[in-house]
Amino acid sequence: MKKSKYNYSFEHNGKFYLFNPYSGLCELSSELFNLYNADINLWPNSLKEKLIRKKYVVDEIDEYNVFLIMRNRIVYSKNTLLLEIAPTLNCNCQCGYCFVSKKSQSMNIETQNNILDFIARRIVQGVRIVKVTWFGGEPLLAYQTISDLSKKIISLCAQHNVQYQSFLITNGILLNKEIVDNLSNLKINGLQITLDGTEEFHNHERPCSHTNGFRQILNNLKLFTSNIKPVIRVNVSHRNCESICNLLYQLDEYAQFIKSITFSPIFSINNTESSYKEELFDGKVFSEYEIRYIKTLATTKLKYEFFLKGKFVGDSAHILNYFCIDPNGNLYKSSFMLGNEDYIITNLKRFNMIDCFYSPNFSRYINNEFEEKCQQCFFLPYCIGGEASMISGKCDSIRYNFQTQLEFYIDCLNTNKFESESQ
Question: Concatenated DSSP letters for 127-149?
Fold first, then answer.
């Protein structure tokens, strides 16, 4: 037997803890903590049995190999179909860092029917869970398509006793009472809205020609009075990093309408404007701002979700049964390539899974090879070799602020102040 290489033992405020990304947080007495950090052969059976049961202690195995086995269960599962559907590539904002190739096209009834046929065939082949993310462009520019297609997918899944749920990614400007009140009927269980700083910065980085986008979003937040509330994503670069704390103080007034806040560094991919490339953070620099923002949140009524739970897949594009669909029914393996014809795998009308295997636009994502440094890295369960931050081989911010996040999570644990995947 041996200690898991992903264990992390530490002291905080006079208490002693053991953390593992797949087992969670365990508080130890000072005596057990000292024993844990001693020779495993000196442990009492009570400690050994508890830690074996929780997988803090494992057999003499290659834990990276176990990681790959668990990853493969997800990557090659036929049980779940993951779809990102863009009913339009048009948008009412012009964000310079956006990676989508914008086009004034929306989904017609033929493509909607092709999506239904595609889902039906996957159900016959073993799918028992269908998860859809509505994306764009701005998907609410095609809200009627979302509504009509959702009802048809819900009906199809019900006929075959298949679970269905969906998620909406929107800039939030077109939300209204009718749309918000209808979310649960369309089985849209959650949504994400982006705010990139205070009014001045947000409207500059995410310009909307017909309205004050920032003010419109704040007004629309007040519509969320039921159980479904939006996650607010804040994209961060050198351009807006100093305005984020002021944004959080402003959002405190709207805390009752918000599920949680997340932060993400802007990164350059596909159609991102070249001017942004000099404004981007690496993981280390972003980690410092991330902690500053989390500490600011602690002074408000807003909630932050700690992403401390270990994963096996960091980006859904690496899952065999994941596809992104554009308004013309073209399939991509990543939403980051949406609208870029060079990355089309095939069209729904010609779909054949075996043929997809022979497309480099598909097969390049179904790859379990990680760099040697990542295979041996303590942080592999968090950043998945860069998948979690969408930049292969690059270290995620958690590598640089891990202990600070853990300590801050413990401080907030008993206050119900923050949500966490790790509990």
Answer: --EEEEEE-SS-GGGGHHHHHHH
With a CB cutoff of 8 Å and minimum separation 6, the contacts of 178 are none
CB under 8 A, 24+ apart: contacts of 403-407? 403/8, 403/10, 404/291, 405/291, 405/294, 405/306, 405/308, 406/8, 406/10, 406/12, 406/17, 406/19, 406/25, 406/308, 407/10, 407/12
CA distance 372 to 394: 13
Q: What is the pLDDT of residue 86?
A: 95
Length, in residues, of the chain: 423
Task: Calculate the average pLDDT of the chain.
Answer: 89
- Sign of torsion over alpha carbons 362, 364, 369, 375: negative
The neighbour count for residue 287, using CB atoms within 10 Å, is 22
Q: Determine the Cα–Cα distance for residues 257 and 251; give it in Å rounded to an integer.
A: 10
Residue 326 has pLDDT above 90, yes or no: yes
d(CA 329, CA 113): 10
416: left (phi > 0), else alpha (psi -120 to 50), else beta? Answer: left
Are 57 and 27 in contact by the 8 Å Cβ rule? The answer is no
Element of type H or E holding 70: helix 63-75
Q: What is the DSSP string of 173-207?
A: TT--HHHHHHTTTTTEEEEEEE--SSHHHHHHHS-
Name 362's Cβ contacts closer than 8 Å, sequence gap at least 6: 333, 345, 356
Q: What whole-number distance in Å separates Cα of residue 180 and Cα of residue 177? A: 5
DSSP per-residue letters across 327-352: TT-EEES-GGGTT-GGG--EEGGG--
- Parallel/antiparallel/unpaired status of strands 163-170 and 129-134: parallel
Question: What's the CA angle centered on 360, arms 359 and 365, to 5 degrees?
Answer: 110
Q: If we measure between CA atoms, which residue out of 295, 303, 318 comes closest to residue 388? A: 318
Rounded to the nearest angstrom, the gap between the alpha carbon of residue 408 and the centroid of all alpha carbons in its chain is 21
* Burial track 45-76 (b if 16+ CB lie within 10 A, e otherwise): eebbebbeeebbbbeeeebeebbbebbeebbe
pLDDT tens digits for range 32-80: 888 888 888 888 888 888 888 888 998 899 999 999 999 999 999 999 9
User: Of 142, 103, 4, 73, nearest to 320 (Cα)?
Assistant: 73
Q: CA torsion, points 266, 268, 270, 273, in degrees to nearest 10?
A: 90
Q: How many CB atoms lie under 10 A from the CB of residue 81?
A: 24
